[in-house]
Write a structure and sequence with these properties.
The complex is a heterodimer of chains A (about 290) and B (about 280). Chain A is of the alpha/beta class and about 290 residues long. Chain A has 10 helices and 12 strands. Chain A has a 6-stranded mixed β-sheet with strand order 6-7-8-3-9-10, sandwiched between helices. By secondary structure, chain B is an alpha/beta fold. In chain B, the strands form 2 sheets. Chain B has a 6-stranded mixed β-sheet, with helices on both faces. In chain B, strand 4 and strand 5 form a beta hairpin. Classes of the chains: A alpha/beta (about 290), B alpha/beta (about 280). At the A-B interface, helix 8, helix 9, helix 10 and strand 11 of A face helix 5, helix 6, helix 7, helix 8 and helix 10 of B.
Amino acid sequence: MTKESEGHRIDLENVTQEFHARGTTSGFMTAVDGVSFSLTSEAAQVVSLVGQSGSGKSTIARIILGLQKPSSGSVTYDGNDIYRLSRSASNDYRRQVQPVFQDPYAIFNPVYRVDRVLWKAAHKFGVAKNRAAAEERIEESLSAVRLDPAQVLGRYPHQLSGGQRQRIMLARVHLLRPSFIIADEPVSMLDAQVRKSFLDILLDFGEKYRMTTLFITHDLSTVSYLGGEMMVITNGKVVEQGAVRTVMADPSHPYTRLLLDSVPRPDPDQRWTDRITVDDKGDQILVDQP
Amino acid sequence: MTDRVSVPDDILQISDLTVRYSSRPGTPAAVDGVDLAVRRGEILGVAGESGSGKSTLAVALLRLLKRPGRVTGGSILFRPRDSAEVDLLRVGDKTLRGLRWRNLAYLPQGSMNSLNPVARIRDQFADVIVEHAPQRRGELAELVPRLLGTVGLPARVGGMYPHELSGGMRQRVLMAICIALEPDLIIADEPTTALDVTIQRVILQTLSDLRNDFGVTLILISHDMGVHAQLADRVAVMYEGRIVEVGDTRQIFKDPQDPYTRALIESIPTIEERKAS
């Protein structure tokens, strides 16, 4: 295993993903179109990937997690193609890159107790020498996400709220201390207050344990709250990237400007004066001049 | 903002409306003695956090309240264009059926669950029209494409099933069904929640067109103060089942009178850099 201090990196190079699609002229639709970017754990940071539904952002998450081999292009981890790793390197990758998904309901098997996701992870990645030590680590991780171990251990998924379940996934992250977190819309099903506490824990972990997070969302206020870097994706292409502050203050791509403009401003003196139209597939947006 | 007629012509007059979900003593009412007048042709925003009673208010207006919820007091006077004033809480089921869609329409939250998954879009229009305005059955072939066009959808959507449409398109189909029988009043409950910002903007734009082009009165329920700032003529702010403040949108945002309204406006997460611009 590489030394922690050196840091790890994930590089996407010219990644393209096509899917079969009926009704299109070519028989294919391009979900991800020649995307390249790098994530490094050397300087822990949050990188938000922003786009609307159908833009290809979740496909990118699946590709990085090794769940969807791209049609072309490469994803490398410390220089090695993640789809050709040896078994031990693959295990290391799967420990170092941890997902947090959108739906706090779908992720749990309803017939098992919720702590199973923690026990399984502890066992698979050997985080502790014996059961007692593992239990101690699990309790510690639950406390780190502000859950009371006595309240959640031994419970079934339906006995916990959506916010509690999402925090269990964060506890799993805490247990494994990966270098990268791939978070796909983790807060979109949570209400405002629970959302804020989730984001605070995530930011806290990033700093404390030097984790780099790829945060996938369509919500610009969440991106603004997280800070760090952002990339804007539309129709499978990354059209703009940079520091959140810079991009939001001075967007260079028209699509980014449109996104920022479309957040309803809470000021009746700054109403929209132009109109937008969407084509009938719902994926092309045009601005009509007033 | 458009000039308003000097004598307010109220389409809806809610007086002392109280709704409870439990009859146990000590449990608070979900809607607690609400008085509210809605002016004909306006867009009235109803704001408040989750649990403030705004959706309960909407379903009570529509007489769609489910048990154990029940109205324990008050009246809701509705004055449609072409018929006599009625108290929505006291009309019989038959009269109520006559009012629904023709005079009073509902645009629900979560368009995902509001369309029949096994019927083509045009047949869902037919359901509403045949049931509530059977004399217009003959116009269907011409009416459906025109209504879809009004909300910016192509005619071929009529032949599609709900799963073939995106969330934003489904929401627009519901809007088209809402206006099919030219109602006087539409109650829209969080019509843009869970949609992408650009699609949300298209929906808001379309709602504004409905008012401007057809003179529909709109009650717009939303927790998003940005939506109210963009669209509403007046805003009513709800908190713990009561309306704490009603006023012109500009006054609500620029000069809020109630401390809760002030807190609500201050708590809006902004994209920080915009403030500087």
